């Protein structure tokens, strides 16, 4: 098996979002099940699919942010389409605001009909408090962060710890 690690292209965002949906599927991922509870999911689509438009939009917004790096792991031997088998989204650390200003994309709106906003707000508050406690008042501004199938939250990582 040959895995190629390279920068993602914008055309690959739907595949990255699908992979995120598989890795963080509500049947196996407790956090996703809390934010997108079963009783709010439409009955006419498979469980887990209701969050896909939001996942694609969130990845699209991040992709267009200059301090974000999207990396994909591609299995070049699986088929001739070079299937994406892993991804990492890195928020690059920023220095002083003069040399590289932070560009924080607005989070896309969560789908109101399938989201438990109370749980989402609690989760966001917990993460923000943890970031400050762990890294100080600048939060994650000086930290390489990864969002990948191997991590639910943004975690302190080195640039070489891309998971597939």
Automatic annotation (TrEMBL):
Protein name: N-acetyltransferase domain-containing protein
Species: Trichoderma simmonsii
Taxonomy, superkingdom: Eukaryota
Gene3D superfamilies reported in the protein's UniProt record: 3.40.630.30
